[in-house]
């Protein structure tokens, strides 16, 4: 299950878009804010440029998100010891608590998914999901193919 969780964070997918359990958190923070906090929890302190890259957002957008999170006390930004021009982003204790709460909600939701599938279905689901993520991450948009394929029927047990 942690592979799926890691996929969401590494690929920039926004898992909160389909998780109704996060509604309470989304009253305090946007989905981008929550994703930013989770990425910092998962990867540790990062520069603004690194964070923007992982989030798949322009630096100007990441700066706006960081200012909002800093104003709310969830992150701290400080100049790097190696280069004063570089800002290092760190979770505060409050930010860490919110990120851990978000992580628990996300893992519980993904656990419900895992419980609904047989081990074979889960393996197939993960394989297809990783394949889809790779297509979007590595190759960009899918272009229509001239050759049409016949869909293969998959039997799923209830």
TrEMBL record:
SMART domains: HTH_MARR
TM spans (from-to): none
Keyword Cell membrane on entry: no
Single GO MF descriptor: DNA-binding transcription factor activity
Alphabetic keyword roster: DNA-binding, Transcription, Transcription regulation
Record InterPro entries: HTH_MarR-typ, Tscrpt_reg_MarR-type_CS, WH-like_DNA-bd_sf, WH_DNA-bd_sf
Domain HTH marR-type: residue ranges: 1-134
Pfam families: MarR
UniProt keyword annotation of Disulfide bond present: no
Gene3D superfamilies from the UniProt entry: Winged helix-like DNA-binding domain superfamily/Winged helix DNA-binding domain
Annotated protein name in UniProt: HTH marR-type domain-containing protein
């Amino acid at each position: 299950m942690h592979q799926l969780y890691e996929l969401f964070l590494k690929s920039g997918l926004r898992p909160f878009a389909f998780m109704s359990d996060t509604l309470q958190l989304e009253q305090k923070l946007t989905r981008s804010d929550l994703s930013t906090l989770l990425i910092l929890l998962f990867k540790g302190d990062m520069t603004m440029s690194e964070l923007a890259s992982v989030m798949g957002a322009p630096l100007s957008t990441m700066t706006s998100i960081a200012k909002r999170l800093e104003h709310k006390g969830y992150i701290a930004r400080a100049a790097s010891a190696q280069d004063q021009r570089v800002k290092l982003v760190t979770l505060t204790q409050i930010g860490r608590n919110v990120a851990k709460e978000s992580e628990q909600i996300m893992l519980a939701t993904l656990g419900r998914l895992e419980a609904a599938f047989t081990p074979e279905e889960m393996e197939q689901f993960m394989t297809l999901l990783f394949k889809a993520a790779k297509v979007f991450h590595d190759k960009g948009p899918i272009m229509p193919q001239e050759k049409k394929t016949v869909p293969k029927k998959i039997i799923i047990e209830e």
